[in-house]
Design brief:
With about 350 residues, the chain is α/β, with parallel strands linked by helices. The chain has a single domain, classed as Aminopeptidase (3-Layer(aba) Sandwich), CATH 3.40.630.10. The chain is built from 11 helices and 10 strands. An 8-stranded mixed beta sheet has the order 1-4-6-5-7-10-8-9, sandwiched between helices. The longest helix is centred in the middle third of the chain and has 23 residues. It starts with a helix and ends in a 13-residue tail after the last helix. The N terminus is likely disordered. It holds the Pfam family Peptidase_M28.
Length: about 350
């Protein structure tokens, strides 16, 4: 009886600590360390270059950025959901609406996909928007290096990290969808389109980790290793615990919950693409660096990014996604959305 009690106790202890167990293996470590300053910087100087013309929704500059993203996935050997037949999910002009009386051209969400080995029907969605606001009347380019070039390149690095693990024989147990959404800047339209036309059922979507601006610091946090996390326990107490455990075991950032309140005056919980998952009862966490002096200005340029901090924040999202994708049990949905 005593021996049986010890075994049961040990099993229970392992279960309670499961959020830390996946970070000890070589596959995780090598994949985690494959997220580098050099790669993030190289990709961001392309995504946020004048050549992309500010990546306005449906513009040729945005489409050029999309082709660059896809080209990098093809080099990595990362593919797309078979049901789509390509990396593109078309978002039609009629859905996008008009600007100053003129219709937006058709645009596209871009989807990369790594199929799970044990529970492929269950899905972790990691998202960021790759559009920005184009040019001003004087023809100056809004490069959007932080908003959301930083999230865009973070997704590319996370996709490569999961693919590296797959090559090492440690593909995730659950599937991972890398979702680059369009039209965030005109009202979260690309993510809304995906949520209303999901490639995989939302009922099978375990969680959404959304990245929107993680390359800079606001005045309040200059010099700090931090990230704002918004909404992580709004729908699931598991999600917040997993994110905190991933941080404790790996990146050791300060997780700042200042905006983690649906009643906050800035209403940031409602202002990025995670909300189109949350309102459909999918647990979501939003990673954010705050409002800085170059937000939505022509001075949001790649030379102003803190690449070391961008790397750490990207690694945190990857580590959180790793646990979500590989843990035995799907996270609980035990909270309620606020509206």
């Amino acid at each position: 009886m005593k021996k049986r009690f010890v075994l049961l106790f040990s099993a229970g202890l392992l279960t309670s600590c499961a959020v830390n167990l996946g970070y000890e293996g070589k596959a995780f470590k090598k994949s985690y360390e494959s997220i580098t300053v050099a790669d993030l910087k190289k990709h961001l100087y392309t995504i946020a270059s004048d050549e992309m013309e500010g990546r306005n929704t449906g513009s040729e500059g945005q489409k050029k950025a999309g082709r660059f993203i896809i080209g990098e996935y093809q080099k990595m050997g990362v593919s797309y959901p078979k049901a789509l037949g390509s990396f593109y999910q078309k978002v039609p002009s009629a859905y996008l609406g008009t600007r100053r009386g003129n219709a937006y051209p058709d645009s596209e969400n871009i989807l990369a996909y790594i199929e799970g080995t044990e529970r492929p029907q269950e899905l972790i969605v990691i998202s960021a928007h790759y559009d920005h606001v184009g040019k001003n009347a004087a023809g100056e380019v809004y490069n959007g290096a932080d908003d959301d070039g930083s999230g865009t390149v973070a997704l590319m690095e996370i996709a490569e990290a999961f693919n590296n693990a797959k090559k090492a024989g440690k593909a995730p147990k659950r599937s991972v969808l890398i979702l680059h959404v369009t039209a965030e800047e005109i009202g979260l339209v690309g993510s809304r389109y995906y949520s209303e036309n999901p490639v995989f059922p939302l009922a099978n979507t375990v969680a959404n980790l959304n990245i929107d601006m993680i390359g800079r610091s606001d005045k309040e946090n200059e010099g700090k290793n931090y990230v704002y996390v918004i909404g992580s326990d709004m729908l699931s107490t598991d999600l917040k615990k997993i994110n905190e455990a991933a941080n404790s075991a790996n990146t050791k950032l300060e997780l700042n919950y200042k905006y983690d309140d649906p009643n906050d005056p800035q209403r940031l919980y409602y202002r990025s693409d995670h909300y189109n998952f949350a309102k459909n009862n999918v647990p979501a966490a939003f990673f954010f660096d705050g409002i800085h002096e170059d937000y939505h200005k022509t001075t949001d340029d790649p030379e102003k990014i803190d690449y070391e901090l961008l790397k750490k924040r990207t690694q945190l999202v990857f580590a959180t996604a790793w646990e979500l994708a590989n843990r035995n049990d799907r996270i609980v949905v035990d909270g309620k959305n606020t509206r």
